[in-house]
Structure formats: C-alpha cells, structure tokens
UniProtKB/TrEMBL annotation:
Protein name: RGS domain-containing protein
Keyword tags: Membrane, Transmembrane, Transmembrane helix
Transmembrane feature ranges: 6-28, 48-65, 71-99, 120-147, 172-196, 208-226, 238-258
Cleaved signal peptide residues: none
Keyword Cell membrane annotated: no
C-alpha cells in the first residue's frame, strides 16, 4: 500500500527514531565513563537495543508494511516488549544489589545480621546463570498467554491482523503485564541506596514509571476513542501503536539519551586524575583521605571556601603553600622556579612559613645545592611531592576536622561521601566484572 496522510504520525516517529542507534552506540562504547558506568551500561544496552528495534521497525511496518504478514507486529509487540522489560528489571535488580553492598562497605556500623544475611542471598542475583534462569522463567510466564493466537491471524496483512479482535484482546493482556512490571520497577527503585546513588538512578527509574504509565493511559484512551467514535479516520491513525512507540522512546530518553548528554556536558574527563587509595585493603587509610582532599582543592571555588575558613580560624600558609606547589608543577620546572618556591615556603622566616616547611627546609636546601652543583637545567619530576604530601597531612589533621563542622564545610562532607561511595562501588563493580568473565 502507498503512504497516505493518516500515516504521518508513524512516519514522523520512523524518521525521528534513527537518532537512537548512534546514541546507543555512544552509550555502549563509553561504558567506562564516570557518568555511565554505574548504570551498568553494557547490561542496560541489551533492553535498550530491543526498544530501539521496536521504535524503528514498528513505525516502518505500520507505514510501509501494511501488506506484510502481521507476524512481524505480533513478535515486536508480544515478544520483544516483554523481553526488553524483563532484561531491564534484571539490570535494575543488579543495581539495587550493587548499591546495597556498597552501602554496607561504606557504613558497616549501620548493618544488622539480618541485613547481611539478606545481602548474602541477594548477591546470587549478580551471577549471569541465575539472571538467565530467572529471565527465562519470567518470560515463559509472560509470553504463554500470547501463544494461543490463531495462526491464520499471523498471516493476515498487517493492516488487517493488528485490528482483529484476538489481537486487541492480547493487547489488553500485554497492558496488564506491563503495568505489573512497571510496579516492580517502581518498588525496586525505592531500594536503591540513597547513600550511593550519586547519579540520580532512583529518579530515572521513577520517572520511567511515571512516563510509561502516562503512555499506557494514552493507549487505553486512544482505543476507547476509536471504538466509541467508530470513525475510520481515527482508526487509520493507529494511535495505540503510535503511543506504544512513544513509550519505547521514553525508555531510551531516560536511560540512554540523558546519561549520554550528561557525559557530553561533564568536565570529569578533562580533570587531572588523582590516585585513589587501595580501599579494598584499608578503606579509611591516610592515602585515600589525602587523595580526596587534593581532588577537592583542585576546584577554585572549593579552594576559596577552605581558604576563607582557614583565614577565620587558622593559619592560611599551608593552603597557600599547597597552591604555590600546584602552580609550580603546572609550569616549567626550572631550577630558578624551584629556588623561588623554596625561598617562599621552605626558608626560615619566609613568606609562607609552616611547621611542615621548617621540618623539611634543610632537606630541600640540600637537594637544591646538589642540583646546582650538577648544573641540572630543571628539577626532577615530583620534586616537591614530599612537601605536598606533608602539607596535606597537616591540613587533614589540623584544619579539616573543624572545617567539616562549619557551614562552609558542608560541600566537603558531601564530596568526601561521594568519593568514598564511588571508590567502594568501583570495588564491587570489579567483582561483578570478574563474575562475568569467569
């Protein structure tokens, strides 16, 4: 059949749908990015690929395949959609378990024997064989009602078969199943840890629930309107199918498009990497605390907040000395620049005199003399590393405890919690990846 005016809504969706494959490809290829990896993108990509296929092929069938057998629409509607939703829920369940385990690692004092036993049981949901078994079991239950379709209906032209009474009856069953699965999505979202959820996953799943419920309401209203008005023009628009494709776009919008957009807008990829501590060995080590503080002070606004507090309560020299080291490392590490920094921070009665500087003064003067005697044109890499590390330790011991109790320190407390949760979550994700490859 030729394309007619009533095909316009589905034709628009068919054209718009072609933005989905490249976005999904970016989502999959950049799976290790900080904005994506905690969403388990390689797992999420499976249901999202099924929704992408549905969002492109369903409009194409409605517009260009009116004479094709309705078997294609049957598979897309009653097989692909349940499969996509089941895989989607399996991934959400994994996220819930991962976040709960991470919270237990972060806050062991808040755990109870019952909670630990429950997590020991739930951790089996992270094993791929268990996931495959559960997905197959649920899919059999969901798809069984659709297997009683009359085979003759499947070979009718798509424009006829998809409006047959039996097809419409099966659609109502599918709507009920989708509502039940969406309720499960909502319930699981309530169990996503507040402590670990730093990227709004709970909100994404709840927005998905609200968005798809709205789509289902529109599908039901469109069917009621078409049956009540008995207008062939309204029927030819195929509004229920139109809104079902919009539902697929909704899923992809919240779980692929928005994360990719956040990734593109993120500055995290351009920030200098700061070494993390081996938290799986000692999660509260000084190395980790120094790494978190150093990363926090890299931001100019945050540094100014700490400096403001230090000016009110303590000496500012250690912070300014740390800033001077950062400026030195960002420039040319010449011997003359190193001499100026030593004179500024590591000499008796210098401009930025600190207890740390007094203790390391002699050692750094000896190092400079050795470089001068050797006619070295520049300092070796990380020449001031020891000085930097000692300054960070001093700030952590003398400044940070009071800073975290002050209103200016609220952001640092939140930042510290974020960094620690990401560190623990990375450990748990590494364990899951080991399970996948074993």
């Amino acid at each position: 059949m030729a394309v007619v005016a009533s095909d316009a809504p589905m034709l628009v969706l068919f054209i718009v749908g072609w933005y989905l494959p490249p976005v999904l490809w970016i989502y999959y290829r950049r799976a290790r990015h900080i904005c994506l990896k905690y969403r388990l993108p390689r797992r999420t990509a499976v249901p999202m690929l099924l929704f992408t296929v549905y969002a492109i092929v369903m409009p194409a069938t409605s517009v260009f395949g009116k004479d094709w057998p309705s078997f294609g629409s049957y598979v897309l509607t009653f097989i692909v959609i349940p499969m996509a939703l089941v895989f989607f829920i399996i991934t959400e369940t994994m996220i819930v378990v991962l976040f709960q385990i991470t919270e237990l690692l972060m806050l062991p004092q808040s755990s109870t024997p019952r909670k630990v036993r429950r997590l020991i049981l739930y951790r089996w949901l992270l094993h791929p064989p268990i996931q495959i078994f559960l997905a197959a079991l649920v899919l059999v239950g969901l798809v069984t009602p659709f297997l009683r379709v009359d085979a003759k209906t499947l070979f009718l032209p798509d424009a006829v078969g998809t409006v047959s009474p039996q097809y419409q009856e099966l659609t109502l069953i599918l709507i009920v199943e989708v509502v039940c699965l969406l309720l499960l999505v909502l319930i699981l979202s309530w169990y996503i840890s507040h402590v670990v959820d730093n990227f709004g996953l709970r909100r994404s799943y709840q927005q998905t629930f609200h968005g798809i419920i709205l789509v289902l309401v529109l599908i039901v209203l469109a069917r009621v309107a078409a049956d009540g008005v008995r207008d062939d023009t309204l029927r030819s628009l195929r509004l229920p199918s139109f809104f079902s494709v919009v539902g697929a776009h909704t899923m992809l919008y919240f779980h692929v498009f928005l994360p990719v957009r956040a990734m593109r807008a993120s500055r995290d990829a351009t920030l200098r990497r700061v070494q993390r501590s081996p938290s799986r060995i000692h999660p509260h080590s000084m190395l980790e605390k120094k790494a978190i503080l150093e990363k926090f002070l890299m931001d100019d606004d945050r540094f100014r907040n700490v400096l403001t507090f230090a000016r009110m309560e303590y000496t500012t020299e250690p912070l300014l000395a740390l800033q001077a080291i950062t400026a030195f490392e960002a420039g040319e590490p010449s011997l003359s620049a190193a001499s100026r920094l030593v004179a500024q921070c590591l000499s008796p009665r210098c401009e930025l005199e600190t207890d740390v500087g007094k203790r390391l003064s002699l050692a750094y003067h000896d190092k400079l003399d050795e470089l001068r005697n050797a006619d070295a044109p520049r300092t070796p890499p990380q020449f001031f590393h020891a000085f930097r590390q000692e300054l960070l330790v001093w700030i952590l011991h003398e400044l940070v405890p009071a800073f975290t109790e002050h209103p200016l320190g609220v952001e640092y407390v939140a930042f510290m919690r974020l960094e620690k949760s990401m560190d623990r979550l990375n450990v748990v994700l590494a364990c899951v990846e080991d399970l996948d490859t074993s």
